[in-house]
From TrEMBL:
InterPro entries: Glyas_Bleomycin-R_OHBP_Dase (IPR029068), Glyas_Fos-R_dOase_dom (IPR004360), PhnB-like (IPR028973). Gene3D superfamilies: 2,3-Dihydroxybiphenyl 1,2-Dioxygenase, domain 1. Residues 5-130 form the Glyoxalase/fosfomycin resistance/dioxygenase domain. CDD domains: PhnB_like. Pfam families: Glyoxalase (PF00903). This is PhnB protein. It comes from the Bacteria.
Length: 137
């Protein structure tokens, strides 16, 4: 296997819903493992996600999990998940789905550097940046 870099997002009890939402956005195969399947003795957390991985037809990998009960959940942080490329239709489709029921921080629009760019926070509190590269004249 070659090396890869991908986001691993922590959630506060809604990892299943978030990862299923991302599967709706991007398509692909979603694998979910619960704390109960791993033998965690805390019954209140048995159905929560210990590890989830979405692998999409477009080559994206997104991982996530619920924060274990013995750890403190810290929302946000200084990060954004960035999507970029030149497939206008795909990237606009992702934008529409990610920003629906979320908060648009920077509307998806042409920017001074020539690309179309936008920033939003999805309904799970995850910040996203979308950059659609434009052909250089």
């Amino acid at each position: 296997m070659t090396s890869r870099l991908n986001p691993y997002i922590s959630f506060d009890g809604d990892a299943r819903q978030a990862l299923e939402f991302y599967q709706e956005v991007f398509g692909g195969e979603l694998a979910l493992n619960t704390f109960g399947e791993a033998g965690l003795p805390d019954a209140s957390h048995a159905d929560k996600i210990m590890h989830g991985m979405l692998e999409t037809p477009g080559g994206f990998t997104l991982m996530g999990a619920d924060t274990p009960p013995e750890m403190q959940y810290t929302p946000g942080g200084n990060f954004s998940v960035s999507l970029s490329g030149d497939d206008d239709a795909d990237l606009r489709g992702y934008w529409e789905k990610l920003s629906a029921d979320g908060t648009v921080v920077v509307p998806l629009d042409k920017q001074m550097w020539g690309d179309v760019f936008g920033m939003c926070t999805d309904r799970f509190g995850i910040p996203w940046m979308v950059n659609i590269g434009q052909a250089q004249d």
